[in-house]
Amino acid sequence: MSDFLIYDQQGSIVTLTLNSPETRNALSNQEDYQAIVAACEQINHDSSVGAVILTGAGSCFCAGGNVKDMKEKKGAFDGDPLTISSNYRHGIQKIPLALYNLEAPTIAAVNGPAIGAGCDLTLMCDIRIASEKAKFAESFVQLGIIPGDGGAWLLQRAVGLSKAYEMAFTGDSITAREALECGLVSKCVAPDDLMAEARAMAERIVKNPPRIVRLSKKLMREGMHTRLDTLLEMSAAFQAMAHKTDEHLDLIDKISLGEK
Q1: CA angle, corner 181, sides to 108 and 142, nearest 5?
Q2: CA-wise closest residue to 129 among 182, 195, 173, 181
Q3: Which of 195, 202, 167, 193 lies closest to 182, judged by CA?
Q4: Where does the chain have alpha helices with state H?
């Protein structure tokens, strides 16, 4: 798909790999941002995709924004304040909208440090599995900037307000084990087991009817910010569709026959 992002599909599982280990997979420019957005668009238009794994090449998951570009005021960091604001809105901020709103379930396989925007990138995924070598930091304040890519919205929903404030106000990193304790990740595994664990999780997901999994994800997303009565109305409409699918009828038949 691009030099920065490897798109690999095996069966109904897509693995997206950030592929710039020399920059620690930093999110550097418009081309990098667009590669992720384009991959998400491709997945949303491909009903054969049942789950997505996001990981990084090399020893780092993602080092966040390119600090060298910040220092040299290049790319997204060039121009007056209004220009920089526009660069964010039409650049890196497209990633949370695309990745968070992917219809297929997403698993972040965090192979190493996830720093700043890299930490937020993991939060845009539904499930996070960490290597014991991973660490996480909402480190923007240590650069004298704020989370510009949605981290202030994402982090508190993953770890709760108190821990989110602690991470955002100090910028300090936490280990993979600490991330497990605060709910930032759901599993912490040996480095050599990371991709196998992520793949096994994806396999458990794709065994289920893909259209129903996508509808379930949509309901979960809506449930984070809508009223209960609104969500119930939406659930009733989705359930009516589900009851008429071939997958539902086949599964009911198998259960009735004791095959499942």
Answers
A1: 70
A2: 195
A3: 167
A4: 30-44, 67-72, 81-89, 94-100, 117-123, 151-159, 161-170, 176-181, 194-206, 210-223, 228-243, 246-256
Tokens 């890196």 sit on residue:
92
Instruction: Name the token pair of 52.
Output: 């997505």
What whole-number distance in Å separates Cα of residue 224 and Cα of residue 231? 10
Helix (H, G, I), strand (E, B) or coil at 11: coil
How far apart are the C-alpha atoms of 31 and 69, rounded to whole Å?
14
Report yes or no on whether pTM surpasses 0.70: yes
How far apart (Å, rounded) are the C-alpha atoms in residues 171 and 57? 24
Kindly report, residue by residue over 237-253, the tens digit of the pLDDT.
999 999 999 999 899 88
Judge residue 76's burial from the number of C-beta atoms within 10 Å of its C-beta, 0-12 exposed, 13-18 middle, 19 or more buried.
buried
List residues bridging with 188 in a β-sheet.
Answer: 130
Alpha carbon distance, N-terminus to C-terminus of the chain: 39
Placement of tokens 């220092």 in the chain: 71
